[in-house]
Design brief:
mainly alpha; two-stranded parallel ribbon; 2% strand; globular
């Protein structure tokens, strides 16, 4: 068997890899989903509304931002603008990932509905060794989407009986997991500079201005830092 044929993926192998990689993320997402459901319920949303929001929006940060600003009647324009700023990073993640996925254009567009920070990080790490296949991506997507939708719905049903996950630091689980995934990309000078500048700018903007401006600011600062720190030949 030659070296090229040894990298030919099988659906079963790719699905197993996707399930294996997404399992820690799914576990970390459970308390976050429960917390969102409980908060949404306290804001007056029914379990049916919560399950529809999680299934159709599927964006944890944007959903929390919407719930924090939720009043009756809902400020649609404000919510839409905040969601746009928070999710603007998906444009950059999609542009980074598209050359590395082995899917048709239609499959890619469908796949990016399920794009999350963690799915992007896992896919980028896998792309260091081989292209990201549809079987790998959708194995991750189905698990994480189902897990988020189910856990947020359970949170909405149980409501106040859950208590506050912030007491035990469960609200930090997703953030800690993502930091670990990013750390796995390596310790090159460009990576370290990009992460440090992006995190520093986001923290400063969040402290002095507040959400959701820190998301876009951190992303743009990271892009600028990566460009400046990259070797001259990589810029051309």
């Amino acid at each position: 068997m030659d070296q090229a044929s040894s990298f030919v993926p099988t659906y079963r192998r790719e699905i197993r890899a996707g399930l294996r990689d997404i399992a820690p993320v799914a576990v970390a997402a459970l308390p976050i989903g429960l917390l969102f459901g409980a908060v949404a319920s306290a804001k007056g949303m029914s379990p049916l509304e919560v399950i529809l929001m999680s299934a159709l929006v599927f964006a944890g940060g944007a959903q929390f931002a919407a719930i924090e600003s939720w009043i009756q009647p809902a400020p649609i324009l404000t919510l839409a603008f905040a969601t746009l700023l928070i999710n603007a990073r998906h444009v950059l993640m999609g542009a980074s990932l598209t050359p590395k996925v082995r899917m048709s254009r239609v499959q890619t567009l469908l796949a990016y509905f399920f794009l999350t920070d963690e799915a992007w990080a896992l896919s980028e790490r896998r792309a260091l060794e081989r292209p990201v296949t549809g079987a790998y991506w959708f194995a991750m997507a189905v698990v994480l989407w189902s897990n988020w939708t189910l856990s947020s719905t359970i949170g909405a049903i149980l409501g106040s009986f859950l208590g506050d996950p912030e007491r035990i630091g469960a609200d930090f689980a997703f953030t800690a997991l993502f930091i670990g995934l990013v750390a796995g990309f390596g310790r090159s000078r460009v990576t370290l500079v990009t992460v440090a500048v992006s995190a520093g700018v986001a923290a400063l903007v969040h402290y002095f201005i507040g959400a959701p401006w820190h998301v876009a600011s951190g992303a743009l600062a990271g892009i600028a830092a990566a460009y400046i720190a990259a070797p001259e030949e990589a810029r051309s």
